[in-house]
Design a protein that fits this description.
The longest helix is centred in the middle third of the chain and has 31 residues. The protein has a two-stranded antiparallel ribbon. It is built from five helices and two strands, in the order H-E-E-H-H-H-H. By secondary structure, the protein is mostly helical. Strand 1 and strand 2 form a beta hairpin.
């Protein structure tokens, strides 16, 4: 059981990452037949680039401001719904509604797929089989 996952992991992650690392150590434009190996010269050139330093600074600033902003926003919402009042109850409902809605939608989807009039049972009865009570069998799981 581990072999397919390992093959998929190697083919989809390890080989492309290794190829990218190898190509980063070459001078290759993507068109010539053979890349010329230059070693770490590309990385030295990259570290001397002022645009990289500016991009790194902007990235750090955005990350820090975003983290601080989201933390303050979360703290503000937590303080907003702390305590007991009609306004707090309203804000709790508004904040919690997306979580409830997504679970509700997933439940409806499973019912549409596995219910007694769902897609799976429609296919089974179309092919001449009996309805399978996926979601309505109260006897519990059967052992083989």
């Amino acid at each position: 059981m581990v072999a397919p996952a390992t093959v998929l992991y190697v083919v989809m992650l390890i080989i492309p990452a290794g190829l990218a690392l190898y190509l980063s150590l070459t001078d290759w434009d993507g068109f010539r037949a053979d890349p010329a190996f230059v070693g770490a010269a590309n990385y030295v050139k990259l570290l001397d680039d002022p645009e990289l330093q500016r991009a790194a600074l902007v990235t750090l600033l955005v990350a820090a401001a975003g983290t601080a902003g989201l933390s303050l926003l979360g703290l503000g919402f937590a303080l907003l719904v702390n305590g007991a009042s009609k306004a707090n109850t309203y804000f709790r409902i508004v904040l919690f509604y997306p979580h409830v809605l997504s679970a509700l939608v997933v439940g409806f989807l499973w019912s549409a797929i596995l219910g007694t009039t769902g897609a799976v049972d429609n296919l089974v009865t179309t092919w001449g089989g009996q309805v399978i009570p996926f979601l309505s069998d109260r006897s519990g799981p059967r052992s083989p």
